[in-house]
Every structure is written in C-alpha cells, then in structure tokens.
Amino acid sequence: MRKLIFATNNTHKLQEVSSMLNGVVELKSLADVGLSGEIPETADTLEGNALQKAQWVYERTGCDCIADDTGLEVDCLGGRPGVYSARYAGEHCSPEDNMNKLLAEMGSNSNRVAHFRTVICLIEQGKPHYFEGRVDGTILTERHGNEGFGYDPLFMPNRFAVSFAEMPPEVKNSISHRARAAAELTRYLTESSAI
Ligand code: IMP
Asked: pLDDT-based confidence at 116, cuts 50/70/90?
C-alpha cells in the first residue's frame, strides 16, 4: 500500500485521519520516520500553514507527505479566529479560554453563522496539492456537551439540533471538516492510482 508521512505530532489526529483515508494509503507518523521537534506554523492562512508543515517534512525526508490546518471562521467576526483558532486567547491558552473569548467577542450578536474549514496539503514528488473540507453551522450562546475538543461545545452543525460535543465521535467524524478534506484527498489518491 502507498505510504505518506503525516506532519503531525498528535497521535489522536493521526489515527482519526488514517481511518478517514479508508485504507487507500498508510500514514506514517513523524516518529515512525525518526523526525522530532516543533514544526513551524507561521503563515497567515490555513493553506500557508499546511504547505509550511508539509514542506518541513519534505525537506527532511524527500518523501511524499501531507499536513493539515484547521480554523473556525465566524461570519460576524470577519472570519476570525480562523488560522489563529488554537491560540485565539493567547499563546498558551486553553480551549476554555478560547471559548470564553469567542462568546465575549460575539456578545449578543444575532448573526451566529460560522464554519470550520480544514485544508490538507499533499506534497507529491515535490509538488503541492490542496484539499479542502468545510462544515457549516452556528455558534451557540453557551456550551453544550462534553465530547470532542476545541470549540466543539459551542458549534452546532447545520441540520443537527446538537453541538459537536453532544454527538458520538463517529457521527462528528462522518460529517466534519477534516472528514470532508480527507474524502477529497482519498478521491484524488484513488483516481491518480487508477491512471
Ligand atoms: P488544527 O489545525 O487541527 O491544530 O486546529 C487548530 C485549532 O482549531 C484547534 O486547536 C482547535 O481549537 C480548533 N479545531 C480544529 N478542529 C476542531 C474540531 O473538530 N472541533 C473543535 N475545534 C477544532
């Protein structure tokens, strides 16, 4: 089976994305290929960060690899926190701090439209390809549920009456931004291997 290195130190994410790729490729972790250290993420777009992380691996291994970056983009905040979602409330902030800041910035604004967007960058024989996945929804006025991570307790996807944090993980993982980006990548890999 074809192998790709995934530019992440997060083993949970590696497992989640591996299962979303449906056995089309085998993902190798950074540890599997003997890489360690902090991967730089200093771009100001999701595409830029995904490319930067994938390039970091490619420069060190010369192997085909993928990297992802995700942001929560809120309409009434002009797309913030976006690429800064992980450190919205400051450099070493917790998910609680980020959710508090989001609720404070939105206040009682009635426009609560938002989406999560994931960009996966594949570097294949030195050339970058991008795959995007997005899930639309709204930001709740208070937290609901204990599953998931990050902003999940505040995000209710369209066509559901519960937040991401109230869903069984397998339901979230079947409709999420990451799942949709992974599906685009899977389609590309399947089609290109059929040529
Ligand atoms: P990353 O690019 O996957 O590291 O995601 C950046 C940040 O976006 C995370 O630290 C979370 O705050 C947020 N985030 C990404 N994916 C999700 C999700 O599925 N649910 C809730 N928050 C998420």
From this structure: very high
How far apart CA 59 and CA 193 sit, in angstroms, is 24
**What is the atom index within ligand 1 of the atom nearest the CA of 41?**
2
Using the atom order of ligand 1, give the atom closest to the CA of residue 88: 12
Point out which residues pair with 120 in neighbouring strands. Answer: 68, 131
Q: How confident is the model at residue 137 (pLDDT cuts 50, 70, 90)?
A: very high
Domain boundaries, the chain: 3-194
Q: Give the binding-site residues of ligand 1, using a 6 Å CB cut-off.
A: 69-72, 85-86, 98, 116, 148-152, 164, 176
Share of the chain above pLDDT 70, in %: 99
Is the whole model's pTM more than 0.85, yes or no?
yes
Q: Are 9 and 30 in contact (CB under 8 A)?
A: yes
- 3-194: which CATH number, 3.10.180.10, 3.40.50.300, 3.90.950.10, 3.40.140.100? 3.90.950.10
